[in-house]
Design brief:
The complex is a heterodimer of chains A (about 300) and B (about 750). Chain A is an alpha+beta fold and about 300 residues long. Helices cover about 45% and strands about 20% of the residues of chain A. Classes of the chains: A alpha+beta (about 300), B alpha+beta (about 750). Chains A and B meet through α3, β4, β6, β7 and α8 of A and α10 of B.
Chain lengths: ~300, ~750
């Protein structure tokens, strides 16, 4: 099964189970969770089921295309189910079967692994799913986002596409994967990996101080504008600018441009912004949703 | 008739490390709930668990609650009737229980006669109370981390949080289902989110089945039937059985590979305790990894296998790693080699990463990594690891020189090991395999050619973690590095503990996120066993060590007073804890470690004092000593300790102020025995002699109390007598506060 076949299979599976198929967020993010289709949709009472691929950038994991398992950018397949259906684990296992993984011939395990994102004021309870010892999926019941308790509870399923594809194609080097139609992953992505890694580690024709100063400036400008957007009641574009800040911070970090204390301060700033944005989204959502979707347990 | 109660909470995979505790909780809470509900059973509840279920069973539970009868007293009879008519008090009392005044009875008590009523409640049928019991049980269970999952109970207490979502419930009494329901919140209402209703269906293994679809519902009748049906459906309910099966299979497979499971599994992990709680139907597969990876340090290989993949490394007869591992799986498959191959690929990928780190890391000497430590934060108030390294170096040097009295070369080695001990935190290997911090630094130091005294001190500096006498490292492991190791481990832990308290990070109750208690324990354990581990004949005092560690954090006057007090109490507490864990009687420990003086003694000599004391308490002389001491202490406390010390320094000689022969005799005794006792204490090894000598005060003390009245009209004389008693008390306190040990009634 090619890399793109895997995406097609998962999309077909989840579409047939009531998910909207969305597109990736067209911004630099570290994970599918940052996409408003997750970050915003899990808030409030409205049911929502959606699936999408999210190219995810982790500057610190860049290895110049030399490491067979680590990438600056990898692909997640993100599924959001709200409320979380009772049969969600079985659904997930069925989705693996749809991709050609027969659970009766392998050792599939759900082992405790909780998720937490301090920068988003978010955490959840869940597992990593192991397939013959290989971590292929993160499975999370969201509990809080933006410091707010969620109700109902959303289930987030995040598949690591490269890993699953490597498993299915029995290759040990990600660049040897067949993306589709006989074209290798390396042909599609290797040059990008090399160049992005160089950028992430500051290997640019620019003195290090200048590199750092530029990214700090970009961070501050985006941060300031996100606040303006927030003050204008525009949560969606505000989130996008907050995400840009988050990525710029990651670059500052991977290029070794910031010290310890500063690092903590940056994380805190992004967190404060993200929390305010999620709250603004909830307020706007409540105002537009009307009285027919009142939250609250049946007590 | 007594019948069987069976409860199964079917759950999504519960974290393995929680299961042993939850299994215990199930039985304890169920028993408590049954007792509260006046439901009697012949034997206590049994409980079981697997990753997907928590089960409890009571073999024979009464069919009804026992009847309830309680006599409630009301107003005194005198206030109950006026002119033979019931008073409002009496009427009110009767009304409260919904009866006529005529139905009340008279109850005679030592305080007089009262109006009374016997409340009688007929026991309800067990089936009618089991719902409440299950609701209570579900609420009683506690988890290290709980989740909300859109569920609530109809007990008026709202949301039902749990470990993971509950998927099915068995609640059966005498083979019949007792109705119970877990509701789902309105906001989650959807065709795919349903209430959970109790039933007689359980579920077997997710993937394994002999007939029909895996994971289908299985109808059950009794516990025996339940356990048998589960087994047919590939679930071994009994954890012990899963464990012994795993052990057996591990052994067989290891033997087939020509070796055995590495002892490192037991030494550095709880893997063997964990795997039975990760699987419902275990079996073992064997895998291999390319032999070239054996060039990696053994520690890297075992840590990768054990901590990252939950695999069991295999060693040959000499204990050397073989390029093979065993994996416990939750399956029984026709082609185990498929799973083995896949596991091999995962492990090989990890080892390839590790080899990359190993090759890269060795290009940079540890000393050049110190600057990188500036970007790794130790604690936000205590700064980076760079600063920590400076503090540890200084303290290690000071311990080597001033406490241990070592020569310059050895002091330099202690300083070097202290400076480098955290450097590996900046290495790629430790960033990836954090379990190897310290260990890796030691290995890299060895590879660089640093002497054994230095590399082993780094290698072992996170130890000791345990407090038992044989907790690693052993003297044999430490080899030539024992003394340098002691300087570094003490310096590192001391700096962390003192620093954390300075920063206000003191552990409270069960909260100790930074593991300060563990550091404290390690520090005390290292001190207690210092002579045994290093062969050094030194006995550093706690106070001296604490003061030295405090220096970088500024003058004591500028500390938050609460933190100073908390630190002192903390050290005393850890000190008592370690000694108690060593099996010393808590009363003896308290006697020896006293609030005001513990800082002035050294933990290693305390151990000897405790040893002498635990032998001595059983002898008749000890009772003599304890009784005498208690009498002395009771009176002596009337003279303020500070005032006493002032007097001892400045006031005229005591002899001239005493007059009674009995008190002069006691003073003579003190003068005579004091040198012997203090010399014995100073020697540190003749506590028994000191204790014996101290017990000889008894006759003189008795005589003093028989013949002398301490409190007189002459204030000067009274004070002199109190001063005499204080002097004796203080002398004896150096050996312990024996009033902690005196049996009650003496």
């Amino acid at each position: 099964m090619t890399f793109q076949d895997l995406i097609l299979k998962l999309s077909a599976f989840w579409a047939s189970h009531g998910c909207l198929l969305q597109q990736p967020l067209d911004l630099e993010v570290g994970a599918g969770t940052s996409h408003p289709e997750t970050l915003f949709r899990v808030l409030g009472p409205k049911p929502w089921s959606v699936a999408y691929v999210q190219p995810s950038r982790r500057p610190d994991d860049g290895r110049f295309g030399q490491n067979p398992n680590r990438l600056f950018k990898h692909h997640q397949y993100q599924v959001i189910l709200k409320p979380s259906p009772d049969e969600v684990q079985q659904l997930y296992l069925d989705s693996l079967e749809a991709c050609g993984i027969n659970p009766r011939q392998h050792d599939i395990r759900f082992e405790e692994d909780n998720w937490e994102s301090p920068t988003l004021g978010a955490w959840g309870i869940g597992w990593q799913v192991l397939l013959d010892g290989l971590e292929i999926t993160q499975f999370t019941y969201f509990q809080q986002v933006g410091g707010m308790d969620l109700s109902p509870i959303t289930c987030e399923i995040t598949y690591g596409l490269e890993r699953i594809a490597m498993f299915l194609q029995r290759v040990d080097n990600v660049f040897d994967l067949e993306w589709g139609g006989g074209v290798k992953y390396a042909e599609v992505r290797l040059q990008e990996e090399i160049e992005q890694s160089k950028y992430a580690f500051g290997q640019v024709d620019m003195p290090a101080e200048q590199f750092a100063a530029l990214h700090r400036e970009l961070f501050d400008k985006n941060y300031g504008f996100a606040e303006t957007l927030l003050a204008s009641g525009l949560a969606w574009p505000a989130l996008e600018h907050a995400l840009k800040c988050s990525h710029l911070f990651n670059i500052l970090d991977s290029s070794g441009s910031i010290g310890v204390t500063e690092r903590t301060a940056y994380i805190l700033r992004v967190r404060q912004l993200a929390v305010r944005i999620t709250r603004a989204y909830v307020e706007a959502d409540q105002n537009s949703a009307g009285a027919d979707l009142q939250a609250g347990p049946g007590l | 008739m007594d019948r069987e109660l069976l409860i199964e909470i079917g759950c999504e995979e519960i974290p393995a490390s929680w299961l042993p505790g939850l299994t215990r909780q199930m039985a304890q809470h169920l028993d408590a709930r049954l007792q509260d509900a006046r439901l009697t059973s012949e034997s206590p509840a049994e409980s079981y668990s697997s990753p997907r279920r928590l089960t409890a069973r009571v073999a024979r539970l009464a069919e009804r609650q026992t009847d309830f009868e309680e006599l409630v007293t009301g107003p005194p009879l005198s206030a109950a009737y006026k002119n033979s008519e019931p008073t409002p008090a009496a009427i009110g009392f009767a009304k409260k229980y919904g009866v006529d005044v005529a139905a009340l009875e008279k109850h005679q008590t030592p305080k007089g006669a009262y109006l009374a009523y016997t409340v009688r409640q007929r026991g309800k049928a067990t089936v009618d109370v089991l719902g409440d019991i299950l609701a209570g049980l579900l609420r009683d269970l506690t988890f290290p981390k709980q989740m909300r999952w859109d569920a609530y109970l109809e007990d008026g207490k709202g949301d039902l949080v749990f470990a993971r979502p509950i998927r099915w419930l068995v609640l059966m009494y005498g083979g019949r289902v007792v109705p119970f329901v877990i509701r789902r919140t309105e906001v989650s209402a959807s065709p795919t989110v349903q209430d959970i209703r109790s039933g007689s269906n359980t579920y077997g293994h997710r993937f394994l089945t002999t007939s029909g679809r895996a994971g289908r519902a299985i109808k059950i009748k009794t516990f025996e039937d339940y356990q048998a049906r589960l087994l047919e459906n590939f679930v071994i309910l009994d954890r012990a059985e899963r464990e012994s099966r795993i052990r057996r299979e591990l052994e067989t497979h290891a033997r087939r590979l020509g070796g055995r499971v590495s002892s490192q599994v037991a030494a550095q992990s709880s893997l063997l305790q964990e795997v039975p709680d990760l699987v419902e139907y275990p079996s073992v597969v064997a895998g291999h990894y390319p032999v070239e990876f054996l060039e990696l340090p053994e520690e890297v290989l075992t840590t990768t296998m054990i901590h990252h993949q939950h695999y069991f490394p295999v060693v040959d007869e000499e204990g050397k790693l073989k390029p093979a591992f065993l994996a416990v799986i939750n399956m029984q498959v026709d082609k185990p080699e498929v799973i083995a191959r896949n596991s091999e690929r995962v492990l090989t990928a990890r080892l390839r990463d590790a080899r990359f780190f190993w090759d890269e890391d060795r290009k940079t000497p540890l000393a050049s990594r110190l600057e990188q430590l500036s970007s790794i934060l130790f604690h936000k108030k205590l700064g980076t690891y760079r600063r920590k390294a400076d503090r540890v170096e200084r303290l290690a040097r000071w311990i080597a020189k001033d406490v241990f009295g070592l020569r310059e070369a050895a002091v330099d080695q202690a300083g070097l090991a202290g400076r480098l001990c955290k450097a590996d935190l900046a290495s790629d290997m430790v960033r990836e395999l954090t379990e190897l911090q310290g260990t890796m630094g030691g290995i890299y130091a060895r590879e660089e050619g640093l002497p054994e005294e230095v590399w082993k001190a780094i290698y072992f500096h996170y130890l000791p973690v345990g407090v038992e006498v044989d907790a690693p490292p052993s003297r044999q492991q430490l080899g030539n590095a024992a003394i340098t190791w002691a300087t570094v481990t003490l310096a590192d832990k001391l700096d962390s503990v003192v620093g954390m308290f300075w920063a206000g990070e003191r552990p409270t109750g069960s909260r100790d996120p930074l593991g300060v208690r563990r550091l404290g324990n390690g520090f005390i354990k290292a001190l207690v066993d210092l002579p045994a581990l290093t062969g050094l004949e030194v006995a550093p005092k706690l106070q001296t060590l604490l003061e030295a560690a405090r220096e970088p954090f500024g003058e004591i006057e500028k500390w938050d007073t609460a933190n100073v007090i908390a630190l002192s109490m903390f050290v005393q507490e850890r000190y008592q804890f370690v000694l108690e864990q060593r099996g010393y009687d808590i009363r003896n420990v308290r006697a020896v470690i006293q609030e005001h003086t513990f800082g002035h003694v050294s933990p290693s000599s305390t151990l000897q004092l405790l040893g002498a004391l635990s032998e001595f308490v059983d002898q008749p002389e000890f009772q003599e000593l304890a009784i005498a001491f208690k009498r002395v202490k009771n009176l002596a406390k009337d003279l303020d300790l500070v005032e006493f010390r002032m007097q001892e320094l400045t006031a005229p000689d005591l002899r001239g102020r005493l007059e009674h022969p009995a008190e002069l005799a006691l003073l003579d005794e003190i003068d005579q025995r004091k040198p012997t006792i203090e010399a014995a204490i100073a020697l540190g090894s003749s506590y028994k002699r000191a204790l014996t000598e101290a017990s000889r005060f008894k006759p003189a003390v008795d005589r003093f109390f028989n013949e002398v009245r301490v409190k007189t009209d002459n204030e000067g004389l009274t004070r002199a007598r109190l001063r005499l008693l204080r002097r004796l008390e203080q002398l004896l306190l150096q050996l312990g506060d024996f009033s902690e040990i005196v049996p009650e009634g003496l």
